[in-house]
Q: What sequence folds into this?
C-alpha cells in the first residue's frame, strides 16, 4: 500500500510538471506574434524615418495612386489625384489637402505623411507625423511602386505586381508588333488650349508601356525632340510632323478639341486610316499600377482592331 501511494504521488507530480512545460511552450510560441513591432525604420532618400508597420491614416501629398494600388488607408490627398476619374470610387471620403494647410493635416490625425522633396514645410509635417519625401523622377515608374511597397510594409506584393505586369505588357507588345509591323511607329500626342505636346518614353500617358515594355518605335522627329526632354511642345500647323503610323491621342476634355475637325488633322495618314487611339488625359497622367492596367487594356484592345 505504501508503495502504491508513493507511485501515485510521483505520477501526479510528473503530470503537473508536464502541464507546466506545455503551457510554457505554448506561451513561447505565441510571444513573437503578440510582440510584433508597431514601427520600423524606413531608409528614405533623405535619411532614416521611423514609420508605422501598418499605417491606418495616410496623407499622400504625392504618389497617392501608388498607395491606392496597395490598398493604403488614405485620409488626405492632393487635388490632382482627386480629380482623376480612375480613383473616384476610392476617394469618396478622403479630404483634399495641401502642404500649406497644416491645420487641416493636424485635424486628420495622420500616422504617416508622404510628400515631395521639393515641398516646403517638410520639418513641420514631420512634427505632425512621420514624413517620407520622394523626388519626382529619381526612380523609374516600376521602382517607385516597389519603394512605396517598402514604405507600406508591402514590398513582396509590389514586387510581384511589377514582375507580372512587365511579363504581360511585353507579351502584348510582341503580339502588337506582329499585327502592325516591326517598323511601324507610334506617337503619343496631347491636346492643349493653344498648343500640343508629344512625349518621350517616360512621361505617363502610357509612354512607359508603349516604348519601354512593348518596344514600339517612335517617329524620328519625336525621338529627336522629346526622348531626352520627356516632352516637346508644338503648334497645330506642324501636327503631321509628329504623327506616327499610329497616334495615341491624350485628349483633354477641358480644352477646345476642334482641331479634330481641321484639314491639318484629317490629312494625317494615321487619322484617315483609323489608327488613332484616344485616351482621357485626366485618367492618364500617372504611371501607377491602376493607371497602367487601365491603359494596357486599352492598348491591347485598340491595336488588335
A:
Amino acid at each position: 500500500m505504501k508503495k502504491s501511494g508513493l507511485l501515485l504521488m510521483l505520477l501526479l507530480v510528473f503530470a503537473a510538471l508536464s502541464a507546466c512545460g506545455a503551457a510554457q511552450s505554448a506561451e513561447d510560441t505565441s510571444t513573437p506574434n503578440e510582440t510584433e513591432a508597431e514601427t520600423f525604420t524606413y531608409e528614405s532618400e533623405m535619411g532614416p524615418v521611423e514609420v508605422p508597420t501598418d499605417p491606418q491614416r495616410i496623407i499622400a501629398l504625392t504618389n497617392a495612386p501608388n498607395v491606392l494600388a496597395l490598398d493604403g488607408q488614405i485620409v488626405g490627398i492632393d487635388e490632382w489625384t482627386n480629380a482623376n476619374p480612375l480613383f473616384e470610387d476610392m476617394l469618396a471620403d478622403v479630404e483634399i489637402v495641401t502642404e500649406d494647410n497644416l491645420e487641416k493635416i493636424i485635424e486628420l490625425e495622420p500616422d504617416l505623411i508622404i510628400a515631395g522633396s521639393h515641398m516646403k514645410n517638410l520639418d513641420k509635417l514631420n512634427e505632425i507625423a512621420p514624413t517620407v519625401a520622394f523626388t519626382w523622377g529619381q526612380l523609374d515608374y516600376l521602382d517607385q511602386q516597389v519603394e512605396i511597397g517598402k514604405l507600406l510594409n508591402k514590398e513582396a506584393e509590389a514586387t510581384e505586381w511589377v514582375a507580372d505586369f512587365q511579363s504581360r505588357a511585353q507579351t502584348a507588345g510582341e503580339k502588337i508588333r506582329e499585327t502592325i509591323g516591326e517598323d511601324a511607329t507610334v506617337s503619343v500626342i496631347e491636346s492643349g488650349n493653344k498648343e500640343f505636346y508629344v512625349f518621350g518614353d517616360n512621361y505617363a500617358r502610357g509612354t512607359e508601356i508603349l516604348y519601354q515594355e512593348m518596344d514600339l518605335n517612335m517617329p524620328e522627329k519625336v525621338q529627336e525632340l522629346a526622348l531626352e526632354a520627356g516632352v516637346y511642345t508644338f503648334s497645330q500647323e506642324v501636327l503631321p510632323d509628329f504623327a506616327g503610323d499610329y497616334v495615341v491621342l491624350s485628349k483633354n476634355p477641358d480644352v477646345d478639341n476642334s482641331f479634330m475637325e481641321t484639314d491639318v488633322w484629317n490629312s494625317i495618314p494615321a487619322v484617315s486610316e483609323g489608327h488613332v487611339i484616344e485616351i482621357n488625359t485626366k485618367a492618364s497622367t500617372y504611371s501607377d499600377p491602376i493607371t497602367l492596367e487601365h491603359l494596357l487594356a486599352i492598348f491591347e484592345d485598340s491595336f488588335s482592331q
